[in-house]
Amino acid sequence: MKILFITDRYTSDLGGAAKSAERISKILADAGNTIHILHLSTTLNAGEIISNSDDSGRIIHQIGLFPEFDTAMQWVELIINGLHRKVDFDIIHGHGLFPAGFLAVYCSKLNKLKSITSIRGNDLDRGIHRSDTFQHLIWTLENADLISTVSTEAANKSAVLSNRKSGIIYTPNGVDTQIFTPRKKNQQLLTDLNINDAKIFLFTGEMRFKKGQPFIFEAFRELNVKFPCKLLIVGEVRDNIEKENYLLKYPELRDKIIFIPYMTDEYKLSELYNICDFFFSPSLWDGMPNSVLEAMACGKIVIGTKTGGIPDMITHGENGILISPDDLPRLGEACIELINLPDNFLQEMSANARNTILDQFTLHHESAMWINIYKTLY
Predict the structure, then answer these.
(1) Pairing of strands 114-119, 59-64
(2) Range of the structural domain that residue 13 is part of
(3) Do 341 and 193 share a structural domain?
(4) CA atoms within 13 A on the CB side of 169
(5) What are residue 164's phi and psi, to 5 degrees?
(6) What is the mean pLDDT of each run of 10 residues along the chain (378 residues)?
(7) Is residue 240 part of a domain?
């Protein structure tokens, strides 16, 4: 099968969408399909095209987008149609609802091909509230041959928006359970970070309002009134002004928050998961965060919210903690209640977190799912 896989996030980009694009396209390549990746890049010069292949046989075309929206879309349409004339694709897969999903469905219709649009989470939540993308979004949902979503919430929203009765499937992410696995705490790492006798809370990724930044900061202040705690933030804080104002207001917490740059080495990242006691994921809206999968695979208790794909992974009180996004002002209180639970209860919750991943969210599950989807569609 010959597949054109369109994405605006790929391996050179940070974030979960880039990781999932790489994972899904590799699954399809490893299954013996011919895969062309069309990466809509915002880092290349406008109109620039760079093509190469990787070790798995995928042919990657990076194209630099023009700043003008209409010019950019017409430019990409020309490239897609030109690639199809050379390769004769069977399916066009858009990773992300807009622009990738729209382009996949539109160009598939023009060339009488099958199409898949994969909704990652924020692409839907953001797109339905933007006047410049709403019509494209609705048309895409109505006309895609198949819509995949990383959460049951997104599947329900897609059905409501499109009035579709079929052709929407839940396709959860998978995680490498050999890299992200429970290990003994790395004592040298704890020493290097100057941590001892403290409860360790971890956040990974880009901390911003969507990810619950103000609620994490306030909860951490409340926690330190009751217990000695440390907060590790692996990635970056988008609202640096809010961060600095917080540290100016509470200077006693400055040495209790440790900022660590983004990590591309997954083994080293897994060691950070394994030294922490609890993991923060209090998103206001989200897809299926890779960070939650990684933390649970390491047997860590996640404090998450009832939004996006997080409730698809976490059952409150069994393998993690869930609170409503509109109840986030009591995040600190929920964390204190969690710490005060008996050790045997916390150990059981930790084991359940790991088992949930092994039962439902491994790379094997994800691979088998996508191979079956393509067999069914074509």
Answers:
(1) unpaired
(2) 2-173+363-377
(3) yes
(4) 17
(5) -75, 145
(6) 96 85 96 97 93 94 92 95 97 96 97 97 90 94 98 97 96 97 97 94 95 96 96 91 92 96 94 98 96 98 98 98 97 97 97 98 97 91
(7) yes
Structure tokens, 243: 């961060």
Task: Give the residue ranges of DSSP H helices in the chain.
Answer: 16-30, 69-87, 102-111, 122-127, 134-143, 152-162, 187-192, 213-226, 240-249, 266-275, 290-297, 310-313, 331-339, 343-360, 363-377
Residue 336's nearest CA partner among 236, 227, 241 is: 227
What DSSP designation does 320 have? B
Question: Residue 68 and residue 88: Cα distance in Å, rounded?
Answer: 29
Q: Is residue 180 part of a domain?
A: no
Please indicate, yes or no, whether residues 53 and 89 belong to a single structural domain of this protein. yes
Is 1:91 a contact under the CB 8 Å cutoff? yes
Q: What is the CATH number of the domain that holds 135?
A: 3.40.50.2000
pLDDT digits over 28-42, tens only?
Answer: 999 999 999 999 998
Whether residue 24 contacts residue 7, with contact meaning beta carbons closer than 8 Å, is answered with: no
pLDDT in tens, 212-228: 999 999 999 999 999 99
Q: Are residues 49 and 166 in the same domain?
A: yes
Same domain? For 196 and 265 the reply is: yes
Shared domain for 107 and 234, answered yes or no, is no
d(CA 296, CA 322): 14
For the chain, how many residues are written? Answer: 378
Residues facing residue 305 across a β-bridge: 323
User: Do 222 and 350 have their domain in common?
Assistant: yes
For the chain, the first-to-last Cα distance in angstroms comes to: 9
